[in-house]
Amino acid sequence: MAEAARAARKPFTAARAKRMIGVSKAVAPLLAPYALAAAGVARSRWDAYRAGRLGVEPGQLSQYTGPGGALHARLSRIAEALQELETGTGSRGTEDDRAFVAQVRPRLADLAIAVRAAGQMPTPRRRTAYRAIGGELDRVEVELLTRLGVIG
After folding, report:
1. Which of 26, 54, 87, 124 sits in a 20 to 30 Å window from 3, CA-based?
2. Cα(80)–Cα(117) distance, rounded to whole angstroms?
């Protein structure tokens, strides 16, 4: 410990700089593969986390990037659920459900256009537009979940 304190007090000289560069040249090739592997693991975990938050597979993550990515992911998931409701078996797939799907699909298309258009707006207006779109998606999701029997 006394050596470390003494080394910290030594002035930084050209000889010390050359010695540190030489050591780093010898050690860097040994540590590089481990650093790359750690970076790859960290990146895959981060992608899995982001994909989980959006409700998509990690492979689909690149489709939902940018400020409106989360809304686009919600729109696609609702569209998939509508398809399931329309073609469902048993209590699902009734005429009333098909009418609901026919009514909501054009609305989802309009909301997708609105998300893309809002992406070009200045930040305060974009946030306001995204909040409005999110509110509309919330209403559609509640109705969809009611029809699927998830909520009463």
Report:
1. 26
2. 23
What's the whole-model pTM score?
0.69
DSSP 3-state helix, strand, coil percentages of the chain (rounded to 5)? 80, 0, 20
DSSP, collapsed to helix, strand or coil, labels residue 121 as: coil
Which residues neighbour 23 within 8 Å (Cβ) at sequence distance 6 or greater? Answer: none
pLDDT in tens, 85-131: 888 755 566 888 888 999 999 999 999 999 999 999 999 999 999 99
Residue 47 contacts residue 61 (beta carbons within 8 Å): yes
Paired tokens of 28:
């860097």
91: Cα separation from own chain's centroid: 34
Q: By the 8 A CB rule, do 101 and 85 touch?
A: yes
For the CA atoms of 53, 54, 57, 62, what is the dihedral angle to 10 degrees? Answer: -120
Residues in the chain: 152
Specify the DSSP class assigned to residue 150. S
